Amino acid sequence: MTTTTAPTAEAPAGAAPADRPRRARRGRSWAAPVGVGVLLLTLPYSALDIPLVLDGPVNSAGSLQLLALCLVFAGLALSYDLLFGRTGLLSFGHALYIAGGAYGTQLAMTHLDLPLLPAAALTLAAGTAAACLLGAISLRPLALGGIGFAMVTLAFAQAGSIWVERNPGGLTGGEEGLSLTADSVPSLFVGIDNTVNVYWLALGYLALVAALVWTAVASPAGKVWQAVRDNEQRVSVLGRDPFRHKLGAFVLASALALLGGIVHLLVTSGATPETTTAEFTLTLLVMVVLGGAGTRWGPVIGGVLFVWLDHRLTALGVSDAVAGLPEPLAAPLSEPLVVLGVLFVLAVYAAPGGLAALGRGRRRAGGPRGARSARAARAARAEEPVSTREFTVRVRGGELAVTRWSAGHAGGGGAAPLIALHGITANGRYFAPLARALAAGGLAVYAPDLRGRGASRDLPGPWGLAAHVADVLALADAVAPPDGAGALPVLLGHSMGAFAAALAATRHPGRFSRLVLVDGGLGFPAPAGSGIDSLLEAVIGPAMRRLSLTFPDRASYHAFFRDHPALAGHWSEDLERYLDRDLTGTAPRLRSACVLEAVRADGADVLSGAETLAAIHRISDPTTLLWAERGLLDEPRALYDAERIAAARLDRGPVRAEPVGDTNHYSILLAPHAVTAVASAVTAGRER
Predict the structure, then answer these.
(1) Phi, then psi, of 421 in degrees rounded to 5
(2) Which stretch of DSSP H or E encloses residue 626?
(3) What is the 3-class SS of 186-218, one letter each residue?
(4) pLDDT at 525
(5) Is 178 left (phi over 0), alpha (psi -120 to 50) or beta?
(6) Tell me, what DSSP letter sits at residue 564?
(7) Is the bond leading into 51 cis (omega within 30 degrees of zero)?
(8) What span, in angstroms and rounded, lies between the C-alpha atoms of 511 and 116?
(9) What is the per-residue pLDDT across 621-639, written as a single tens digit (0 to 9) for each?
(10) What's the CA gap between 189 and 287, in Å, rounded?
(11) From CA 545, how far away is CA 538, in angstroms rounded?
(12) Long-range contacts: 19-23, Cβ < 8 Å, 24+?
């Protein structure tokens, strides 16, 4: 069968580098914080009176006090989101550290006669040390998972709350709490006339927390936190220690909460027992969920909005306007928590991802970015047609199905053909965008459906990467025999195919001119004692689960993948043809053509095969490893990063590792700029 399509042109000379859009996005990402910061800095100088929003002018003492409290809780919500939204740790004990900051500082000033700064420093040091110990204990109930962590943190918080309420030795003031010791505090933070300074302090706290949290989340450790949240077992499979990273997030969040407790002490002029309760932590949880857990601005929005609503609804409940209403209306309106609860439920229904996520889903699924990608792909078509032909090659047990892309001049002049090996649950059609780009440049591309997949699903076992190596060698002999006049083929592998390519190169040195490994090939030993099925589920997730599903028709199968976060903005006819090739059976019981036993055997080789894991370190052919900056679900934690690449010490051999910006595990072969990067790696050594 032969079809004709137009190729994707390579990027023109002088095209903008891939990191230029990233720098532009980075600049835009700081525009909003700077703008918000400037606005908050100007508020104490504004005499604007905003009815219903504030009780008086913006720069009045009462308004600044409320704004300062809003800013403090915005910072506290950010610290809690570091646990819940960024790392997936549901803590019921965050209030323990907020109360510890307030009570510890006040007790140090009262009983140790320390000024504010030394008392705060001592409290921070002691509280952070306690967080290290209590965090390690709280994170250990692994058998209970997240529930165990939540219950242990709740137990510690309840113990602290009971201790405060019982007022041992008159230390904590019991139900009355502790008033701020004014003599130990700088005078600029005491008195109504100095409310503006308290506002500056609260603003400084929020700015510090935001800078620390946002910087930490963007760091390599932050990406591991988010990977732990999405799939902790996958983090273990990739060689990282989830416990150590979760403890780091816990200690940082607790230290920020301790600091927030100190600032709260100064803003409210005292330490109150309410800050020790589990309800206080639940309030932070509500703030985070209301604004948007795991988002940049969500906790800030949730914290400010919740505190403001609580204040305004309390004033509304005792107002004459409510008192004059009929009893069925006056009763609920006079209870701020009832109104807050209703508003919270409505907000959750209207914005399930939080207020900060409103409108983001439309942009990701089919907004301007997806439209631009589609237009760019269409504009990049060259005029010369590329033919697509399917044929088979004789291998052990039957025929290996192969798709060939070539233009009229492809393969001419002794140009090296490309053999492309796909991932563990894919098929050769996934290479269509890359194949057209290379064929337009004069290369013939051969992409087999590997044994147990696509049109090669009927090839028998035994399975494993060794079987793929034998099949690849048979294909290489068919398209570029070693004693022929043409150049040696280039071997490219994506994901599992990269491991098979590395193994083929080490078993048959000199048989291929060069290797290109795309987001695969560099492995790390799997954790001991883990079953292959659970490991595969952790690593490839939905791709593994779909093997046991059935679908009534092709449209349903397409719909299953349209919701895949890694494919957003990259949907195309090529992708639909690739998915159609993966289907077998008859409606209404269509299923994936992948043979489960083949997937399991290949997965065992990739995750624990000693020869497979060592292959990349034994390669003698020129090799390029291209890696995506995001993972299989478009999550920030990718299969590889600069730290892991450096740890592998690939620079000691012929392997050169390079990132491909703004890509995930799948889009690295779909996005136009990524196709250009991979094509350039393929053609870089074709003169050899």
Answers:
(1) -110, 130
(2) strand 623-628
(3) CHHHCCHHHHHHHHHHHHHHHHHHHHHHHHHHH
(4) 67
(5) beta
(6) -
(7) no
(8) 73
(9) 889 999 999 988 888 888 8
(10) 27
(11) 11
(12) 19/661, 21/661, 21/662, 22/661, 22/662
Per residue in 343-363, pLDDT tens? 888 887 887 778 887 755 444
Q: Which of 637, 636, 663 is nearest to 235 (CA)?
A: 637
**Cβ pair 672, 9 in contact under 8 A:** no
Report the C-alpha gap between 4 and 26 in whole angstroms.
41
- Can you read off the two tokens belonging to residue 617? 């370190």
Collapse the DSSP code of 634 into the 3-class scheme (helix H, G, I; strand E, B; otherwise coil) and give the result: coil
How far is residue 54 from each of residues 64, 221, 355, 457, measured CA to CA in Å?
A: 10, 41, 22, 69
Task: Show Cβ contacts of residue 272 under 8 Å, excluding neighbours closer than 6 positions.
Answer: 102, 177
Amino acid identity, residue 353?
Answer: G
Which residues have a Cβ under 8 Å from the Cβ of 416 and sit 6 or more positions away?
443, 480, 486, 487, 488, 489, 490, 513, 686
Q: Are strands 418-421 and 398-406 parallel, antiparallel or unpaired?
A: unpaired
CB atoms within 10 A of CB 416: 24
275 in Cβ contact with 261 (< 8 Å):
yes
Residue with tokens 């001991």: 528
Which of 295, 281, 217 shows the shortest CA–CA distance to 249? 217
Q: Given a cut of 70, is residue 10 above it in pLDDT?
A: no
Handedness of CA 626, 627, 628, 633 (dihedral sign): positive
CA 531 to chain centre: 25
Query: Cα–Cα distance between 155 and 236 in angstroms, integer?
Result: 28
Name residues whose C-beta falls within 8 Å of residue 36's C-beta, 6 or more positions apart in sequence: none
Q: How far, in Å, CA of 616 to CA of 655, rounded? A: 8
Strand 445-448 with 398-406, pairing = antiparallel
**Which secondary structure element, helix H or strand E, spans residue 558, and what is its range?**
helix 554-562
Q: d(Cα 603, Cα 465) in Å, to the nearest integer?
A: 9
Report d(CA 49, CA 51) in Å as an integer. Answer: 6
CA 421 distance to own-chain centroid: 27
In single-letter form, the type of residue at position 675 comes to V
Give the pLDDT mean for 161-178: 92
Encode pLDDT of 488-507 as tens digits. 899 999 999 999 999 999 99
Sequence-ordered list of residues with C-beta below 8 angstroms from that of 319, at least 6 positions apart, any chain: none
Structural contact between residues 95 and 278, judged by C-beta atoms closer than 8 angstroms: yes
Name, in order, each residue with C-beta under 8 angstroms of 686's C-beta and a sequence gap of 6 or more.
Answer: 415, 416, 443, 487, 490, 513
Contact 58, 48 (CB under 8 A): yes
CA-based torsion, 583, 586, 588, 591: positive or negative: negative
- DSSP string covering 505-534: HHHSTTSSSEEEEES-S---PPPTT--HHH
Write out pLDDT tens, residues 262-318.
999 999 999 999 999 999 999 999 999 999 998 989 999 999 999 998 888 877 766
Average confidence (pLDDT) over 366-378: 43
Bridging pattern class, strands 591-592 and 583-584: antiparallel
Averaged pLDDT for residues 179-185: 88
Are the C-beta atoms of residues 8 and 440 closer than 8 Å to each other? yes
* H or E, element range at 498: helix 496-507
Query: Residue 497 in contact with residue 420, Cβ under 8 Å?
Result: yes
Q: How far apart are CA 101 and CA 121, in angstroms?
A: 10
Provide CB contacts within 8 A for 518, sequence distance 6+: 492, 493, 494, 495, 498, 626, 668, 669, 678
| Residue 349 amino acid letter | Y
Which amino acid, 429?
Answer: R
